[in-house]
Amino acid sequence: MAGFDENIVREYFELNGFFVRQLRKHMVQTRKKQWDEVDDLVIYNPSAAEGASFGFQLFASDMANLRSAVVGVKGWNASKFSPAILKSSPKTCDFLKKEVILKIDSYFQTEPVDDETAVDPYRDYSKLIVVPAFPSSDAHREECTTLLKEQGVDGVIAYRTILENLLRQVAVNHSYSKSELLQMLRVLKIYDMIREPQMTLF
User: Are 131 and 99 in contact (CB under 8 A)?
Assistant: First the structure.
């Protein structure tokens, strides 16, 4: 199901002015010798200024300051992630430690370069990962931020941030015939299945 999650993330960045390229279309092998579905997206925002800063947890308002990044997208459907984790900072922090941090290496694997003198084309790109949620309490958020930074991660984006931004940008008077996802969100809005500003579903 990583492909479904990747499509949501792709739509999010494209709506925010990024060029998006999928880095690979294959599964990767983890340390436990199991195949894991991970999608890497390379994103580039030509209108963002070079050297602009952004926080560790990114929101829609930070997209104007993000110029380029490699984004690790993992389908969390088969994980132990649950609604209870969303509502509990300790459980969210524990989930990130067990389900995310141990798999960081697989998120940013690129194709090996044969020429030792070749320069990694993505060395100047920020490394971002999309996570189901991020702790809301300051203490747990700082703990997870430190742990992820130690693993080389430059920032995280929560799925809630992505979905809320997509819902806000979809207009009922536009036709999104080129995107099934955006067209579905539009239909839900037309029939008042999603209500603003809380974006309550049903």
Answer: no
